[in-house]
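Dear colleague,

Thank you for sharing your sequence with our group. We've completed the structure prediction you requested, and as agreed, I am returning the results in plain text so they can be pasted directly into your records. Please verify that the sequence below matches your submission; if there's any discrepancy, let me know and we will rerun it promptly.
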Amino acid sequence: MAEATIPDRVRWAVEQLRLQPDERVLEIGGGPGAAAELICSQLVQGWLLGLDRSATAIERARRRNQAHRDSGRLRLQQGELRDLSIPAGSVALRSA
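Please find the predicted structure tokens below.
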């Protein structure tokens, strides 16, 4: 399988986050996982929860980021934002 490319706009957006290795990130509508790939590669103790309503997008992100899933740095969930239930304080609010 050919290596998946990462669009310049996605690289730029992730760079704007200035992530720390222990960050806990919530990505809403992550699509095929390009940003998740970049974000997870910067995390050590942190993790990313990717939420998308599309089963196809979640499956693509799973395939693209299997190593990050295996390491525990990436968790993926299919569903709507309004239905997301996460413990209070588990992610910090910030945007690029």
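Summary note from our side: DSSP finds four helices and three strands in the chain.

Kind regards,
the structure core
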